[in-house]
Predict the structure.
Amino acid sequence: GADDYLPKPFEFDELKARLNAIIRRKDGRTTDQISVDGFHLNATYRTLTTPDQKEFRLTATEFRLLQCFLRSPDRVFSQDDLVETLYNIERC
């Protein structure tokens, strides 16, 4: 599809986000957003939108940690959990 096109030069993180979106669609998952209390985390563009509609582009590290927190908002994470999250995106 049209969302598969990535013009050169490109950021590796952008390529990775797009590949994850393709994999999600293949697995039947259609949304690339996690929403909690008015905060919206967008996996395709690696952005966070706040309840007052401010948008922030996140680094890969920021995105992975925030994704983990938003997927499990009631969980307390150990330091080891968070370090593992940085290297294994599917853990949380």
